[in-house]
Amino acid sequence: MPAGFRMGISLLVVFLLLLLLPSIEMRRQRKGRGPKAIRQKPTRDRVRGAGRHSRSGSFRLVELPECSELTESGDVFVDCQDRRLLSIPTSQTWSKKPKHLLLAQNQIKVLQDGAFLGYESLTSLDLQQNYISLVEEEAFRGLTHLTTLLLQHNRLGTLSEEVLIPMPNLRYLRLYDNPWNCHCQMESLIRTIQVPSNRNLGNHARCAKPFKLKGTKLKQVDPGLLCKESHPTTDLETDPISSVEPSSLRSKPNAINSCHTYLFPQVRMDCSKQGLTEVPAGIPEDVVYIDLSHNSIRHLKARDFQSAISLRTLNLSNNNMEHMDTASLSGLLHLHELDLSDNSLHFVKYGVLEDLYFLSQLKLGGNPWVCNYSIHYMVYWLRLHPGVRHSGLVCRSPPEHTGERVEKYVSSYNRECPKDRQNSKTDQDQTDPELWNTAMEVHGEVEEELEPSNLRAPQKYDIIRLS
């Protein structure tokens, strides 16, 4: 065989091998990742949509913040509040079966049929402050143990009684702050919540339309009129002029409508940034935390918190508050934390803090404290309650004391003041009738008022004026 022919065959073989090498390499890559990748992909997608981790816990959420699981008094809580969730996390996400599921402040728009399958152990479900506009009839299927359902602050216009049927033990239902359209489709729901035994279902919820029912509580709507056809000429929705009623006197805002209420794990009310000019009425007795910050409550009045007997934490910061009446905090016997920072307080009146027996933290910064005799009560009270951690009590005026700690100012005042108050006369001189109504007697009366009555030393003599 000629040498040239053999060389040609060799070159052809090399060329064919070069063509086959990329194909072999691609097959190796497919073989190494194909079946395994196919098996893993659904798991990874399921975890991403669920909200925390897979059943085995090997994969964690990337796009969405993690929810938290906690146990309190033997109950398992799942806290998914404010996590930008668009749907309900799958029940397989959690290590234990939760009894309380917190989904407030998310972006959920629709509750589809079977949305809570696997959550049969739930006793409470918080869905407030979402964008829910539709609840399908079988959305709550399986929740036979549920006792509390919070749907307030959403976009619901209508809801059928069928939605409530899967929850035979429901005892507490909140529906307010939704744009309820009180027409025929709402008849069955309204009849249900008006049953006397359902006194805690749908309280405070009001119609948004039609015009003739706007502002009427669902509890007060006559369900027998909802499905009757109205004549065009008498329909008040098309004739608003005929339905004009005298405006009622301005009433105090209600806490239930003005605040966001969270029931678990403790009852909390968020009333911040609501444009409030006074403390709302109707604060429930079992509330342990109230945030009233960033409003315009300039004047705290007596008995504003008389119903909040269980309150532990009260935030009144950033209200531009100028005055606090003596009994404004009366009844708060169990309060532990009080935030009065970033207001316009010059001093605190005598007696304001007297009911705060268990206070442990007091925030006072950001106020224009005036270091004169009016500020002494605050310092005396703090001395009598050494367990109270306080901050921000610094003189803003007068200029000679600006930046000085109020406690230091009061101490220096008490060191210097006795020199001006020395009395060289005897007790007999003070009882001399010739000295009555003189400058010496007036000086003695001023001295007596320099300390609150409960801090004064017992007096040896009492002067009784007979004329």
UniProtKB/TrEMBL annotation:
Pfam assignment, any one: LRRCT
Region Disordered, annotated ranges: 31-54, 230-249
UniProt-listed InterPro entries: Cys-rich_flank_reg_C, Leu-rich_rpt, Leu-rich_rpt_typical-subtyp, LRR_dom_sf, LRR_TM_domain-containing
Cross-referenced SUPFAM superfamilies: L domain-like (SSF52058)
Record SMART domains: LRR_TYP (SM00369), LRRCT (SM00082)
Domain LRRCT: 178-228, 367-418
Descriptive protein name: Leucine-rich repeat-containing protein 17
Species: Channa argus
